[in-house]
Amino acid sequence: MFFKLMINIKQFIKMIKNQNHVGAICMILSVLFFSFMDCLIKLTATDFAVGQVMFSRALFGLIPIFFLIPKNRIKNFYKTKYISLHFHRSFWGAIAMYAIFVGIRNLGLAEVTSLAFSGPIWVVVFSILFLGEKIKAKRWIAVGLGFVGVLIISKPGFDNLNFYYIYPVIFTLGFASVSIFIRKLTLVNEPIYLIAFYFSICSGFMGLLTLPFGGWVLPSFYELSLLILIGLFGSIANLLLTQSYKLAEVSLTIPLKYLSLVFAIVFGFYFFNESPTIYTLLGASLIIISSAIIFIREHQLKKPITLPRQQ
């Protein structure tokens, strides 16, 4: 049913006069699918190795991608002149995926989601280091606020020597690298399906490399269905995120992305008996304010906006 909707998405859009509304719906659905995927990753934490979940996310995540390949490219869709850019985007994306999966399995959903929001902050830092961008005082203030928020959320980890708090931070560093290479790929007009395809291939291969280290098990039918859903939900969420970015104004869709924190708190409470600490709520507030300043500034400068959470 969903695939039919994807195939007829252009006809569906034509039926609605205001594309901002369609983009907003896509963003909300994207956030919801990411939240579903996070819950399933946490649910399977004791049953499968991280590498096996990562491999499943990549393998079954290919299914929605193939529905986006144009019919005239089906025989040679994989061809590209920019294999080096694809490799770097995919390699760092796979590192980020592994890190966020470990974080989700060992920390509260609200904590991981809050720390993941700091991705755009690292993108600003990486833009200075690798793209030579000049940053003015307002964005430096935003970066500072974001770092303070990260430290506040991670305080319990420092107090209890819980090293798992480092994994969401590793995710944001990988995410920042991914964003830089996606910017470069979009500048040379590489299609979204090709970027997603190579990312899935690379992350699946890296997940498969963990097989000799043990922990992989033969899933039951029920467990296999969960692994399939992880792949489908993650891929669909990414595609909806991209579609939202194409259809609607960024100033409308970006605030909706922070619904993921609401979903993380609700799902974490009802399904995993998690309650966000005061450190999480305070740190998340600072990170959201920081990200909002960055988004607004980049929107004013008409620069490519870095969307939080892509995996």
Report a brief summary of the structure:
With 311 residues, the protein is mainly alpha-helical. It contains 14 helices and no strands.
Radius of gyration: 19 Å
General form: globular
Strand fraction equals under 5%
Order of helices and strands: HHHHHHHHHHHHHH
Portion of residues in helices? over 70%
Oligomer type: single chain
Report the strand count.
0
Query: What value does the average pLDDT take?
Result: 81
Low-confidence blocks of residues: none
Helix run count? 14
Category from helices, strands and their pairing: mainly alpha
Largest sheet: none
Can you describe this structure?
The protein has 311 residues and is mostly helical. The protein has one domain. Helices cover 75% and strands 0% of the residues. It contains 14 helices and no strands. Helix 3 crosses helix 5. It is globular, with a radius of gyration of 19 Å.
Set out the fold topology.
Elements: H1 2-7, H2 9-14, H3 19-43, H4 50-66, H5 83-106, H6 109-116, H7 119-130, H8 137-160, H9 166-187, H10 192-208, H11 221-247, H12 250-257, H13 259-272, H14 278-300
Helix pairs in contact: 3-5, 3-11, 3-12, 3-13, 4-5, 4-10, 4-11, 5-9, 5-10, 6-9, 6-13, 6-14, 7-8, 7-9, 8-14, 12-14
Quickly list its features.
single chain; mainly alpha; 311 residues; 14 helices
